[in-house]
Structure to design on (632 residues):
């Protein structure tokens, strides 16, 4: 059963009641929220995700509630509640749906030890996965959003899940978070793409969430083997330039961009070294999405021939 | 080939060892070596010389002179190079990362 | 163990493990390249240090991925694993506008007989407002006083000074586990490359470092 199979009434009822149990890749989230924009956002962006029965086990219980007391109506707030606590400071009410996304990120990044978690996008073509680590502001999300509309499958935009046995990347694809100019860039690049309404004045400016193409969601249980680690860097006006980089340096940089490498100890080291063993590593500078698509498609073509 | 080992006044013939019981795990690609030290939870990137020294010490304590001779033999170090200084410099960096330590006298 | 002046074969206390043999023979092949490899021996070891991107209680980065405090434990020695649940806190710059919030050690620096300016204290690089003193930055808001320069709040300089204040006051005023010492804050400003890994420019790295420090502001009760 998919979220789209629920009537609007039933969706509201579950979210306001016992909770909606949503399957996202390997995790189940029980989501509760009385807030309309959260219902709307789930309906629009998660329509193709599987629902679990209400009594099934959920990995994380996530509540996005309204403010208390006067903050219910005066400068109203949205608050993330988890396990009896409130991990985040309250946000303005209008940020409730992005808050849900951020809350889901937090749940996984803080609690999951059965995968090595990398702060990276992952896309796949012909069974070959490309890991794109990048610190904030490097254009990774825009790049990812562009690639997935040009034949690359989304495995994740934010968080790469690396299996601790073997080295496969487990998909955890969710709506891609875009901000400011990126929103317009992707709307032009992929006119068929579905977006949440833009939320303004978040601490990073305007934010909108891009729906994951249905086919990618249907293949969310299909892992992929890493083949490349590419560190992207958007630089206005630049010609696309792919340069090889040291595997060892890349391993350290990936470890730095990991949520739990340091706490996994030796298991994390072994897992990360397997990823690097399997992958050619590059730096990539670019300014145009089409250039990136062309270069990456060529890498696939060269791999398949070899 | 005779190597001249310039030994500074301060250099003591110290014995070196790994800082913690053997708990090192290795990965390598080409000339680069990545070592994970389970005791500290740290991950380090090493050049071949430091990797070699660390590896020797993994097999047991060694003094600077022995490390120097082993290195010269293994790597055909050119005569003009003061391999003793190379070993001392490498040991200093390994000490700083707390991978190795001098054995107290 | 005695000195060995001649060595015809290696003697070790344990048999050499097969992977170690393979590793050593790889080293033999690589060092044909000579002096570059030998020179590398004296360079510092490159150590992985987690980037400050996870959770501080109550604060998140743009994607809700939070900030896990990195205890400045790279230098503090063995066994200092990052604790997943560590929190670190600091005060917002606005807190520091009252001199009666300042600690003795902060006051000693700020009101030294020759009061330091931003440029003299942090620089290089210098900034356009950096000829003003630390006190003028700190007290740019709040009660008027002779020498007050309004409008310095919300500048990057102001945030750097706040970070330094937090580092100096670590362990008091509700500030705990502030991840850097006061000298490290200054060093972070002057040489951000020593704290921020990656291939960005120095100015970008300085901005990354400051963003991290800003995220810790205002988290102390």
């Amino acid at each position: 059963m998919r979220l789209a199979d629920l009537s609007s009434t039933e969706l509201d009822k579950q979210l306001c009641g016992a909770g909606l149990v949503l399957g996202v890749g390997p995790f189940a989230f029980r989501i509760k929220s009385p807030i309309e924009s959260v219902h709307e956002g789930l309906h629009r962006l998660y329509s193709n995700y599987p629902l679990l029965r209400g009594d099934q086990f959920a990995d994380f219980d996530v509540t996005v509630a309204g403010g208390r007391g006067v903050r219910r109506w005066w400068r109203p707030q949205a608050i993330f509640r988890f396990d009896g606590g409130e991990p985040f400071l309250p946000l303005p009410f209008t940020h409730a749906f992005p808050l849900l996304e951020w809350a889901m990120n937090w749940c996984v990044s803080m609690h999951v030890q059965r995968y090595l978690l990398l702060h990276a996008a992952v896309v796949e073509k012909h069974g070959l996965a490309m890991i794109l680590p990048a610190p904030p502001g490097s254009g990774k999300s825009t790049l990812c959003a562009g690639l997935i509309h040009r034949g690359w499958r989304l495995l994740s935009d934010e968080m790469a899940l690396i299996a601790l046995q073997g080295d496969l990347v487990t998909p955890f694809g969710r709506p891609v978070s875009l901000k400011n100019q990126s929103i317009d860039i992707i709307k032009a690049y992929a006119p068929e793409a579905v977006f949440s309404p833009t939320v303004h004045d978040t601490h990073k400016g305007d934010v909108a969430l891009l729906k994951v193409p249905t086919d990618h969601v249907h293949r969310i249980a299909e892992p992929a083997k890493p083949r490349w680690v590419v560190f992207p860097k958007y630089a206005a006006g630049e010609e696309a330039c792919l340069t090889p980089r040291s595997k060892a340096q890349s391993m350290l940089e990936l470890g730095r961009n990991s949520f739990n490498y340091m706490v996994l100890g030796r298991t994390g080291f072994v897992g990360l070294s397997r990823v690097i063993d399997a992958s050619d590593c590059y730096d990539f500078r670019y300014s145009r999405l089409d250039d990136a698509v062309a270069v990456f498609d060529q890498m696939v073509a060269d791999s398949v021939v070899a | 080939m005779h190597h001249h080992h310039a030994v500074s006044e301060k250099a003591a013939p110290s014995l070196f060892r790994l800082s913690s019981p053997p708990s090192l795990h290795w990965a390598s690609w080409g000339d680069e070596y990545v070592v994970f030290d389970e005791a500290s939870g740290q991950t380090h990137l090493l050049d071949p010389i430091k990797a070699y020294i660390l590896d020797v010490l993994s097999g047991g304590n060694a003094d600077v002179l022995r490390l120097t001779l082993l290195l010269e033999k293994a790597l055909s170090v050119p005569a003009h190079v003061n391999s003793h200084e190379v070993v001392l410099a490498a040991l200093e960096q390994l000490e700083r990362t707390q991978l190795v330590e001098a054995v107290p006298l | 163990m005695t000195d060995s002046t001649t060595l015809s074969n290696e003697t070790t206390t344990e048999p050499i493990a097969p992977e170690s043999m393979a590793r050593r023979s790889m080293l033999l092949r690589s060092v044909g390249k000579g002096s570059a490899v030998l020179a590398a021996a004296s360079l510092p070891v490159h150590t992985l240090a987690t980037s400050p991107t996870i959770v501080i209680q109550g604060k998140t980065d743009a994607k809700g991925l939070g900030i896990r405090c990195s205890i400045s434990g790279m230098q503090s020695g063995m066994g200092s694993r990052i604790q997943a649940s560590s929190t670190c806190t600091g005060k917002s710059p606005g807190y520091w506008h009252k001199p009666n919030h300042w600690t003795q050690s902060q006051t000693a620096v700020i009101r030294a007989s020759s009061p330091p300016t931003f440029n003299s204290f942090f620089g290089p690089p210098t900034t356009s407002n950096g000829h003003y003193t630390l006190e003028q930055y700190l007290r740019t808001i709040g009660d008027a006083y002779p020498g007050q320069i309004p409008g310095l709040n919300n500048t990057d300089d102001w945030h750097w000074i706040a970070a330094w204040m937090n580092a100096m006051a670590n362990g008091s005023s509700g500030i705990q586990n502030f991840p850097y010492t006061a000298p490290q804050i200054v060093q972070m400003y002057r040489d951000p490359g020593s704290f921020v890994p990656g291939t960005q420019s120095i100015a970008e790295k300085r901005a990354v470092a400051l963003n991290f420090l800003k995220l810790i502001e205002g988290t102390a009760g």
Observations:
- The interface with chain B takes residues 246-249, 251-252, 255, 262, 265-266, 269-270, 273, 276-277 of chain A (CB under 8 Å).
